[in-house]
Inverse folding.
């Protein structure tokens, strides 16, 4: 995070208003653009969506939760969460 001096970039009226709330302390100003959804940049989101769909389909065809857990390297409780999520 890059430090910027408010006196150098803000109009004087805004600077004085800010000083009534936070005088001499550090203030973080968040970015205005919205955050991207988890996994949307790396491509992992579609991967896990497809994997979870495969798990649900296999379970519906009769594959046991224990077998799915072994096949995908997940715990039985994680498999149950995937199967029963909406």
């Amino acid at each position: 995070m890059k430090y910027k001096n408010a006196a150098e970039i803000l109009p004087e009226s805004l600077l004085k208003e800010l000083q009534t709330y936070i005088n001499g302390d550090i203030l973080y100003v968040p970015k205005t653009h919205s955050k991207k959804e988890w996994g949307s940049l790396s491509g992992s989101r579609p991967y896990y969506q497809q994997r979870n769909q495969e798990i649900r389909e296999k379970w519906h065809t009769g594959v046991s939760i224990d077998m799915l857990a072994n096949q995908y390297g997940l715990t039985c409780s994680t498999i149950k969460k995937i199967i029963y999520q909406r």
User: Anything to note?
Assistant: The chain has a mean pLDDT of 90. DSSP finds five helices and no strands in the chain.
